[in-house]
Amino acid sequence: MKSFRILTPYETELADALFETMFPSDGASPDVRDAGVTDYLDLTLEGYGRKDLPKYQWLFGALDRYAEDKHGRNFAALTLHERTDVLDLLEQGELTDTLPVQEQRDLFGLVVAHMQEGLFADPAHGGNKDAVGWKFLNHPGVWLENSAEENLSAEHVTKGGVIKTLADAMQEIPRDTEGHKLKQLGYENAVNPQMTDEVDVLLVGVGAMGGLSAQVFAEAGLSVIGMEAGPFRPLDEFLPDELEHAYYTRGGLGPKFQQETPRWRETADEEDSREATFSLGRMVNGVGGSAGHYGSWLRRFHPWQFAPKSHYDGLYGPGSLPEDCTLADWPVTYEQLEPFYTKLEQLIGIAGDESNPFVKRSKPLPLPPTRPFILGNKFTEATKAAGLHPHPVPVGFTTESYGGRPATGYSAWNNGLGSFRGDRWHPGLGPVPAAIETGNFELRTHSRVTRIIMDDSGAARGVEWVDPLGRVRRQYARAVILSAYTYENLRLMYLSADSRHENGLGNNTGQLGLHYMTKMFGHVDALFPGTEFNRHTGPAAQGVVLDDFLSPEFRSRDHGFIGGATLGAEQQALPLQIARETLPGDVRRWGAGYRDHLKLWSQQGVIRIQPDALPYASHRLEIDPRHRDSSGLGMPLVRVTYRLRENERRLASWMADKATGLLKDMGATKTWQGPYFTGVGSSHDLGGARFGHDPAGSVLDEHLAVHDTRNLYMYSGAAFPSCPGINPTLTIWAIVMRAAEHLAGELGGQRKDQP
Q1: Is 165 in contact with 122 (CB distance < 8 Å)?
Q2: Domain that holds residue 35
Q3: Is 147 part of a structural domain of the chain?
Q4: Within this chain, do residues 561 and 707 fall inside the same structural domain, yes or no?
Q5: Looking at the domain assignment, is residue 76 inside a domain?
Q6: Is the whole model's pTM more than 0.85, yes or no?
Q7: CA 86, CA 440: separation in Å to the nearest integer?
Q8: 57 assigned to some structural domain
Q9: C-beta separation of 520 from 649 below 8 A
Q10: Do 472 and 589 sit in the same domain of this protein?
Q11: Consecutive 10-residue averages of pLDDT for the chain (755 residues)
Q12: Are 40 and 73 found together in one domain?
């Protein structure tokens, strides 16, 4: 008998029976015992999932008690049919009256997740022995390069039967020597700071926004300090490990964020909040921020989207917006941002073409688009036939070598996990090293800012921070810039309240935290019998999208809603993504039907939907009065008040029906819709500190300076007055670069134009 670390022999036998019921072998599919699913569970309960051990102990007892009462035998001794009936009751929350219904359902969901991980996660985690789960999916494992021929092959690409694992891939990832030097430098600077006197600029967060602006200020000749709570991660620390590193699983790249997961309630009437779901929101903590693992879709907003209130008023007349909607025009125009869009596209090396008729550039994109793929080609053909305008997504991937970065290998294992070879741009790769090279920028990692220091006049003076050794320190600066994620920026504003700003900095007109927006991400899946899509041969960045339903000509109100959406086809499919993709209504998430459904994964395609999110007066971010983080500092958590409105439901439903029709035009024989909304935490969290000309209706001015607090700035998507159905990163960078260049000039810096 096997020897386990946590599970007893009795529990091991029961767990084997449990997983065997959930994924029964038919000879052509893995046997859960041979696959080591219980081995995986044992290792998980010893480590990452140790908090779940009491749940399993309760479950094992409950299953046996029910089996004994009903059949006179323990659970493991029941037939497959009998065990299936027992699990049906657990899934419905009706196994026992000693545990609330929802807790039983949640527990069943946990078991399903562990079954999927034990079958389809990398063998390094104790399950999927001999890669049997990957063989079942015909998935070749962790390949870091795929050819164009494989991408378009009419037959399923199996790489000659060679299945690579994490251990194999790690041998192929070169050591990032320079990155490790920067990692050490950031830590040493935090323990023994060099710039201890007042500096020109202090960045709170050296992620996507702080990293970009650091270069602007440093090359202008200003003295700059960047405080980052996370580490500097060399490229070889972004591992192709779907279970540990992907944001949709354990989210191992965002430990700080998981310690501080915001709370969520749907309305202000709810007395208490619950932990936010964060379906896509496990942000990377570290230099470069979540751009370290983003999909790198770098799209411009349409010109009209900078005046959305005026646009809808012009189309439908004043009063056309949904009740409680607080949509507003931006304080900047497309024309004002266009030079910064262009500058960024050249700096990054964005790949794409000029086939999107709704966006015009003053200069073409520097790199050709990503290569074609079968699903994308089908989508292109069907949408063109419908009179629409499909185009390849502009992405921050190097389709050719650019700026010292190699051409991408089209690996499916770098989106959501990291860029192992530097083929995907982010601020930690270029701007931060460039800023350090000037000698004007000091990077301090593992440094937690807890409060903004104010002077007697009510101006920001610096920050209080905790160094890696736990020492509380102060750093002064002429300009303090909050450049962390939306939630952290807002939290610091609230926690830094003083006698002049009793309700938080930037909140003297009561605008802080208002107009919060988060994205829905719907999708429609489809089956194309006999068509192999080879979705393991390229990244999600390899996409084709439509902007037609975002165009100024799209009359959304004629369809019963206000707003639009992106519809698009993308490539990436990794094993756990495959195992957890939305299922048809006639297939449940376990059992023989689930097993047989997975056999057809490579013949399944998807259209993903990214709708607009309108701002509403009652959607807000504030401090939760009851809950604190688990970081050791015990700081209050952010509380989100947000619910999906009827307008957005109608919008998502209409777009899903449109996607369904397109999939049928593409040749699908069966389609099914995914959920529109899986909870707060989309990774596109915008608003809460709106920028505008009038302090009565905004927190920041057009250059992202806080209206009521001198010397304080916020470089963040929190500034957005609206949330179009377009990936926001490039636009956030554009308003940040514009603001940084403006502030550098005000502080006496010498402007240096970026490429």
Answers
A1: yes
A2: 9-131
A3: no
A4: no
A5: yes
A6: yes
A7: 66
A8: yes
A9: no
A10: no
A11: 81 97 96 97 95 96 96 96 97 95 96 98 97 96 94 94 94 94 98 97 97 98 97 94 90 87 94 84 87 93 98 95 96 98 97 96 97 97 98 96 94 88 91 97 97 95 97 98 96 96 96 96 96 93 96 96 97 95 96 97 96 96 95 94 96 97 98 91 90 97 98 98 97 98 95 55
A12: yes
